[in-house]
Write the structure tokens for this entry.
Amino acid sequence: MDVPKLDLVVRGGTVVTVEGRAEQDVGIANGEVVRLGAPHTLTGARAIDATGRLVLPRGVDPHVHLNFDNLEPNEPAWVDDYTSGSEAALAGGITTVGNMVFVLPWETMADRTRIESALVTEKAIADVFFHDVIVTPGPEILAEIPRAVAAGQPSIKIFMTLPAFDAYAREFTRAMRAVGEAGGIALVHCEDMSTIECCTVMLAEQARTAMSHFADSRPVASELIATERAIAMCRATGAPTYVVHLSSARALAACATARAEGLPLYVETRPLYLHHSVERYHDHDGALYVAQPPLREGSDREALWRGLADGSIDTLASDHAPWTRALKLDPKLDVTRTRPGVAELDTMLPLLYTEGVAAGRLTLERFVALTSTNAARLFGLYPRKGTIAVGSDADLTIWETGGRRTIRDADLRSRAGHSVYAGRELSGWPRTTIRRGEVVFDDGRVLGRAGTGRPPPRRGTTPPLPPPRR
């Protein structure tokens, strides 16, 4: 077989996949990996020396909120669009993101996909795929789901916190069954709205609505009730079900029990729950840490770290939902009116490397599984993305692990302009990010151009491989 002339060679680095690690050259042509060779044996039009550095598959972050147009005219929206969000992702070693897109009541899923795809090809630098958020599961949407999956849109998102959820519970269950039968996957935000409303009313009656009480307004019980309900829906429909941003030990234990039954249930957590705990809400700037679900206790944090290592958690996703500091600290906000979400794309992978791999909690192979391969498999991107192999997209990141660096607000690419991790020291970070064979970030500079991102082709969901026994 004729091997094309190589456009780029990444030489001599330690290439890591979920299967293991080896010092290798990576040969790239036409945006794909076409050869893997012994160190310093491949030649091409351009070479990058990665000797002494890690070469990892690019990050696949399956859960972000970009390009959100708020339907409430007097309320601000999240501040990153496809361009600034891409810049933050690339700086953080991520080349592919999964954006939550809301199918509006007058739209079809195909309508929303066309609109978002056009915006991606105009504005994005990273590759972007979509999760269709079903707001009202009417008969037209239910009938469209099999066609959407067949057309390469295999994931839907359900918010249990939407006012319509309980009113349309039967239809949402049918939507889950339809996406599962078609080969797709349902993402579920698991918080019980009736519990949240009850707790919030009680706090208001006691004049305890300051942000220091935010965790009390959305207790672990609300997450557990909703998680068990999602498990029941998974059991009833057989649909692959993906619990987003799980935050507590009790919800994780419920998922582990369900998985032991053999249910196709998958779990995501987010960085905020790994690096902070509920005490933050008592700080003077506690509103910066407001997210849904809230921060939990230190024991929950440690349970999540164990879950990352032992395989009971499948993915780490940012749930990047950025606001400026001024918007988060707006004095008009309280537990009854919040702006949930934080900027995570710049920092998610470097923090996981530092607190996970460098601290001895995770192997490099498990790091790759959690941040790339598992998401690529679950959301129909594998093997084009999620690994470094002949035939895969040439999306990879060269990591610097030989020094220390401090997270600074001034260095961030997100328009949020601040990080809830500012001042933390990192022991590893992306030095060079390559997307489909093009160097799009290098040594602190974004080199990729807006409009070069693409919606990648997708197929049906595939379960992650279990981690090897240690």
